[in-house]
């Protein structure tokens, strides 16, 4: 049932091209120039008139929510807040009839996320679910939603569900922006076309698996890791750090790269590997100077760069190349090598990657 892979996690990482194709099937048309989500057709006025969107989720799903926020704010110009469901539900939050609440959950059974949904519903908010498990509790409690359709996720560390969630959030932002008129037709078509190419890009990118397996061996000594990214890559840094700590039990933290100088730089020494997402986008020069600061303090840098990068490749200790894509779609590719890095480090350390200690696949208790 692991399809020839040693672990479900690796199988699920490699399934992502097929899963994301399934996720977009029937939603992005064959010409790749239009997205249709049935939830948006059925509840058009509710969604078009949302004054604010609040995303509630936990863990990896919360990271997908942070990317969704940037996506929705960029394309739809609606303010979005992203809340840990566990904090939202106990805070007497300001939420009401003009709000749309998006609940993101792979299992659809996470107790805190379900309770956040019930609370928001009782205050009159419109609830939109982004879930994987069909017919689970959260989709049943929502007004509408979009399944990610990535198939059952068995590995406790979430991989394909994360990229599926980000794909749905991207389609949601694009479809809503098109309906609202907050995106130009050219930008809309260009982004939809590029999104449709992402599964093929990931398929090609997965060839880095052997390179990362080799690289992982040289990083098993570390007790701490820092992950840095900016803009759309900041939540990817958080997600990369979470994957590593869950399955390898190495302490890891994700940070927006510019925050490094406000504290974490004090930690940098030769025992502290730093994974820096330094792709060719508006923030490239800034992340490059962060990398120089780390090298000046003998830190070891694993740089995630855009294919063909020559500058950062010279200063980093290890380099992983990503295909060139649009800024807003970068999380879908940048996540892949970070999943593989966490996986291989954990395997090298002899850890049980599919069943990490103390963790359950769905957290149905508080
Ligand atoms: C991380 C992980 C957890 C879940 C979190 C929410 O790899 O699996 O952080 O993302 O427990 O679970 P769902 O999405 O099922 O609500």
TrEMBL record:
Highest rank taxon of the organism: Bacteria
Domain SIS: 43-182, 215-356
Subcellular location per the Swiss-Prot or TrEMBL entry: Cytoplasm
Catalytic activity: D-fructose 6-phosphate + L-glutamine = D-glucosamine 6-phosphate + L-glutamate
Quaternary state and interactors: Homodimer.
Name of the protein in question: Glutamine--fructose-6-phosphate aminotransferase [isomerizing]
Active site per database record: 361
UniProt keywords, alphabetically: Aminotransferase, Cytoplasm, Glutamine amidotransferase, Repeat, Transferase
Purpose of the protein: Catalyzes the first step in hexosamine metabolism, converting fructose-6P into glucosamine-6P using glutamine as a nitrogen source.
Single biological process term from Gene Ontology: carbohydrate metabolic process
Enzyme Commission (EC) number: 2.6.1.16
GO function term, MF aspect, one: glutamine-fructose-6-phosphate transaminase (isomerizing) activity
GO cellular component terms, A-Z: cytosol
Keyword ATP-binding in record: no
